[in-house]
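Practice problem 4.
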């Protein structure tokens, strides 16, 4: 890996200066500086009134709070995850989390004869609250595998147009604003949901990539309030080496594992599962995984629940998620 390439990737992935220290609960949420949504997806923005509890229906015990990965701001598909569900998502869960939820629903239905998500709304953070920004240039297109010569040629073209330190600086600025905006805004999203629905459910956090960072900031206060059903993270940059909640076994750890205390997962928070595919540059980071990500449009990091055959760990992740959905009660 060249020094310029290391500067672009390393600075953008291994640095997070001045990160926020905590999330805000619905009770004390204040209106943060909203980040404007892309006009192309305005029609899909969250309308919390859509989550009003239908007449005659009881409140859901659990709501899935979902946060997509970096730059997953196109191809948004509002989805009904169960034929019996009265709710449709806003689409901002993104493709990997959508595929996971569909996989978990289908697997639970096949094994139990019952729908997993019939009474579980999926509340995804939209672009106003969480822009999921990390604007780094892509060297490879989706499905493309570059050889070293072509990688060097394309990288040279990128750096000739924009110096490495400028790319890294812009990416870090956008990334920080994205995470800080979400940290300030999630409490308000939950407060609005609860006001519209008249319900006070537990929350099962579901985050992919940058979304895992955003939701980690919400863990402690939800746990302290007795309202954290669990947390499932795919490709988590905060993953520590040897984390006991990692379903795939030992990994080298995430690109942002050395972070300020305010970003570290709470030690007292139970029911947390991390899914890190081997060689995923965000949670199993080394120079080889970074290089693979650049030459193959993200490498393993982009593949969670989107490729066939399924990985050997997909079922275990879905089953644990299902256990937390069915095992939580908001009225003990």
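Answer key:
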């Amino acid at each position: 890996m060249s020094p310029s390439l290391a500067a672009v990737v390393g600075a953008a992935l291994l640095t997070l200066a001045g990160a926020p220290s905590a999330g805000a609960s619905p009770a004390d949420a204040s209106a943060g500086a909203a980040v404007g949504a892309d006009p192309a997806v305005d029609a899909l923005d969250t309308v919390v009134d859509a989550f009003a509890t239908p007449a005659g229906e009881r409140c859901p015990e659990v709501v899935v709070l979902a946060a997509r990965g970096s730059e997953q701001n196109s191809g948004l598909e509002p989805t009904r995850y169960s034929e019996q569900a009265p709710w449709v998502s806003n689409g901002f869960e993104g493709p990997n989390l959508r595929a996971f939820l569909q996989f978990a629903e289908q697997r639970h239905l096949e094994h139990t004869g019952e729908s997993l998500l019939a009474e579980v709304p999926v509340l995804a953070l939209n672009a106003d609250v969480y822009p999921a920004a990390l604007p780094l240039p892509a060297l490879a297109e989706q499905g493309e595998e570059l050889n070293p010569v072509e990688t060097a040629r394309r990288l040279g073209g990128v750096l000739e147009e924009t110096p490495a330190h400028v790319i890294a600086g812009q990416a870090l600025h956008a990334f920080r604003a994205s995470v800080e905006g979400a940290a300030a805004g999630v409490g308000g999203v939950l407060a609005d949901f609860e006001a519209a629905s008249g319900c006070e459910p537990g929350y099962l956090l579901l985050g992919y990539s940058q979304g895992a960072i955003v939701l980690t900031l919400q863990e402690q206060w939800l746990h302290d309030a007795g309202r954290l059903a669990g947390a499932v993270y795919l490709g988590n940059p905060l993953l520590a080496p040897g984390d006991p909640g990692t379903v795939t076994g030992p990994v080298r750890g995430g690109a942002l594992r050395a972070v300020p205390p305010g970003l570290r997962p709470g030690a007292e928070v139970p029911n947390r599962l991390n899914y890190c595919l081997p060689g995923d540059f965000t949670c199993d980071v080394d120079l080889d995984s970074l290089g693979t990500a650049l030459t193959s449009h993200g490498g393993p990091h982009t593949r969670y629940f989107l490729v066939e055959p399924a990985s050997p760990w997909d079922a275990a992740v879905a089953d644990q998620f299902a256990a937390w959905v069915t095992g939580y009660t908001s009225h003990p």
